[in-house]
């Protein structure tokens, strides 16, 4: 049980860090899951009002904190995915431009990561690059 708990804590701490690399598959599942969580958080104040007959402002604050946390986690996962492609996290600023965000978003989904270690860490697949 202690080993499982240590692995879980390590995984959770790794989610909040901007360092390291992230494979396409993990990015593909983590980011949409976070978006689903954000949509659920939007409905939290309404759910509290309907089910608990509570219109207290603390439900809105809890919802806004959860949405901000999810936004932060999406940023960390996106930066890690860029690291896997061997790009710095600052490339994520392109997501603010109308057409560039589509190119960047599809690139993060479909471009394979750098094989072997790169300047941001070891290959998340655990494979070493072939030396020619």
Describe this structure in words.
- This protein has 132 residues and is an all-alpha fold.
- It has a domain of 89 residues.
- Helices cover 61% and strands 0% of the residues.
- The longest helix has 28 residues.
- The radius of gyration is 18 Å and the shape is globular.
- The mean pLDDT is 87.
Based on the model shown, name its key terms.
mainly alpha; 132 residues; globular
Largest sheet: none
Strand segment tally: 0
Rounded mean pLDDT score = 87
Distance between the termini: 44 Å
Number of helices: 5
Spans where pLDDT lies below 50 across 5 or more residues: none
Q: Beta fraction of the residues?
A: under 5%
Query: Based on helices, strands and strand pairing, what is the structural class?
Result: mainly alpha
Q: Taking Cα atoms only, what radius of gyration do you get, to the nearest Å?
A: 18 Å
Shape descriptor reads globular
The residue fraction in helices comes out at 55-70%
Could you state the order of secondary-structure elements as H and E? HHHHH
Give a quick precis of the structure.
With 132 residues, the protein is mainly alpha-helical. It has helices at residues 2-15, 24-42, 44-52, 57-84, 100-110. It has a domain at 22-110.
What's the helix and strand layout?
Layout: H1 2-15, H2 24-42, H3 44-52, H4 57-84, H5 100-110
């Amino acid at each position: 049980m202690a080993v499982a708990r240590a692995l879980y804590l390590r995984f959770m701490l790794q989610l909040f860090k901007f360092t390291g690399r992230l494979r396409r598959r993990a990015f593909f599942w983590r980011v949409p899951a976070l978006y689903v969580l954000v949509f659920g958080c939007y409905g939290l104040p309404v759910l509290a009002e309907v089910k608990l007959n509570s219109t207290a402002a603390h439900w809105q604050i809890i919802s806004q904190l959860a949405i901000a946390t999810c936004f932060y986690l999406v940023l960390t996962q996106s930066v890690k995915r860029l690291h896997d492609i061997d790009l710095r996290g600052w490339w994520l600023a392109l997501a603010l431009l109308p057409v560039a965000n589509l190119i960047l978003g599809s690139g993060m989904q479909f471009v394979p990561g750098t094989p072997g270690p790169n300047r941001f860490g070891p290959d998340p697949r655990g494979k070493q690059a072939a030396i020619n």
